[in-house]
Amino acid sequence: MNNDKCSRNLVALTALATAGIGNVALAQDATLHTPTIEEIVVVGQSKTFANNVVTESMLQQQTPVTSVLASIDNLPGVSVQEGDTYGFDDWSTTVAMRGFQVNLDQQQIGTTIDGFPNGNSNYGGGSKANRFIDAANLGGVEVSQGTADIASRSNEALGGTLNFLTRDPGREQGFTVSTTQGQYDAERYYARFDSGALFGTETYAWISVSRQQASDWANGAAENERDHLAAKFVSSVGGVDLTGYISYDDTHEDNYQRLFSPQEFASNSGWDRLTDNWSGVPYIDQLYRRGWSTLRENTLGYLKAEARPTDGLLLSVGGYFHRNEGRGDWVPPYLVNVTDDAGGPESEALGAPQVNGGAPLGLIFFVDGNGVALAPTPGCVSSITFPYGGAGPEYDPACYPAGAIAVQSYRHTHYEKDRAGLTADFEWSADFQGVENVLRGGIWYEDGQRDEWRDWHKITDTRVGFEFDDPAYWRQYDREYPQDTFKWYLENSLGIGPVTATLGIKQFDATVERDDVFGATADAEIDSDSDVLFSGGLIYRTPVDGLELFAGYAENYKAIADSILEAPDSNLAVSPESATNYDIGFRYVGDRLAVAVTYYDIEFDDRIFFLSAESVTGPDYLSGDNGSYFNAGGIESDGVEVSASYEVSETLSIYAAYTMNESTYIGTGDPLVDAAQGVTPGNDVVGVAENLFVLSFDWVRGPIAAGISGKYTDERPVTLDNGWIAEDYWMVDAYLNLSGGELNPALQGIEAALVVNNLLDKNYLGGISGQGAWIGAPRTVALSISATF
């Protein structure tokens, strides 16, 4: 980390904000203001289930460098944990909502982009919303807690849906540029052009480009980079409304490591045990941060058309495609012996042709100058004490004769995914003698294939660095996962006076296969079709203006993911996960006060549990998969969510949210099976807090907008036996915005924003997954300057 450089940049940007940019005033008539989310309250739409939207102030608490996932963290019932202060590193990102989670273990919350599916959220070939939307292009986020809208396109929506919306083009032509400089070598540059009306028609578009980079907060070794290109258009032609969007995202992230015991956190709460210097000792260098990497490229595009052929009838059809490719890296402290060289020089150490498939014959730790494998001196005791409790003699250079050469691998797991889909919906509204009837329905079809293969490269010379030979000496496996999904839904709503009753049905037909290119494992296919799933509810608009009561019921489902087929030894007879949700509550929206209260009760059945191949003793690098999967009973969740916003005056507003959630494991019903899987019925669910509380103050006067927000996160279990509990903590964020146009007309279009996350520099454990926990990020300061003209 270069704090001196960061300080100089912050000073320079502050001076720039004060002085202004003279040429900007030349285009005042075409100035575009920074887009804001239209909703000023968080109580969401009139639905039979709890739903919320993010507010402008929630966005202002995050820097433009930060992932769009962070914007939802202050909503009731939602907990977002990111190991990196800016949201780099999907490996350590977790989301929890009503006992459902998205992390390395589980993907139980649906994600959509403008209503189109993201293609699941897992690490191995999945993509979260931050891969598709730049923070400056975010137009809003709709969060449906517990129960997703019946039309939601997601195979993961057991615990609701996060629908991330892209901003619409401006109606005037203009150009926006911005830069952000922050701690931990954070830099961001962004530009967007809004076209205004095109071709003399009601057609508008924008195109944007951004580049950002940062290091890690732990020891400044990471090289995180992200390039993002996106474009969107809207058009109204001949009674048809068209919307199109495309984005390309290229990201390189160096990861953070989990801690696997409370003693590790107590001994040093500011270090995740990854190293910043290459030592030349493979056992130590297996934790070299730049060797723990995530590389991803994502391209997503869609085209949607809407039309009203007759009064009361709305038709919508859309098509989309998604291309994902990338890899995940590790640096195991050995070469894998995959060719029998009869005691001669090891071909793996000498650049032999790649071997495809096959079982390991052993491990190679050191070789002599001719490439012949060496054994440690008998009776030698290793003096290496880090990591993973220390090394055996086979890893210690001191246990080999002079001139012994250490060898090491750079392991790549490659991911590719191609998917394309079609959506079609209708909505028919009619009034039958005062009875308002709305019938809607639709279909969703997606066809895709994910490819995964793993190869092992020899690190060229462990004495020098981690550069590796290409091609690989071993391709461990190569598999394809074709999959398709079909969904239909139908829902009818009847409105009689102040009461609206809704009843809906939906069904999924999902199939995933495993085709082993090497024939090393048997091909397999899993059909995880759902039953017909019911949903329904009531909304009662009371005589009190702005007050409505609601109650809802929904059956949710998650298709079996292809990740289960990654583990050939896993039980392929697992059942799809399912959940039954009940919501009851009220919403009130007045002139200055908005309140929403929801009580929910959920039973989550057939929960699929993941047993990680990584533990306190280190990763199992040779495992042909990332772990194993099995049904582990279920979860019961119930709780209360409360949110309120109040305009104290024209300049001051207050927002508060409280969540009380109790989530416990049900178990399988068989004590022996529960014991074998480490599940104790009645234990609290790992990674889920019982209490969450948010309190925010936002103040605006003239050119200045400022805010401060505090969030309390209750203690959370880290391990299934509840023996390790992450302590509760408060997180405080603050922002200060300055609008140049309010100071001087010559500064019209200039804005500056200072954001401080973790203002009190709290030490805490953040994301939890696989019975380990990542350390939360420390205090971070960033300053952004933007100009529109």
Structural class: mainly beta
Beta-strand content: over 45%
pLDDT averaged residue by residue = 89
Secondary structure tally, helices? 7
General shape: globular
Separation of the first and last Cα atoms = 34 Å
Radius of gyration (CA) equals 27 Å
> Which percent range fits the helix content?
under 10%
Describe the biggest sheet? 22 strands, antiparallel, barrel
Question: What is the total tally of β strands?
Answer: 44
**Uncertain parts:** 1-41
Question: Could you explain how this protein is built, in words?
Answer:
- A hairpin with a 7-residue loop joins β38 and β39.
- With 789 residues, this protein is mainly beta.
- Residues 1-41 have low confidence and may be disordered.
- It has a 22-stranded antiparallel barrel. A five-stranded mixed beta sheet has the order 1-7-8-5-6, with no helix packed on it.
- The longest helix is centred in the N-terminal third of the chain and has 17 residues, at 3-19.
- It is 6% helix and 49% strand.
- It is globular and about 90 Å long.
Task: Please give a handful of descriptors for the protein shown.
single chain; 789 residues; mainly beta; 22-stranded antiparallel beta barrel; 5-stranded mixed sheet; 7 helices; globular
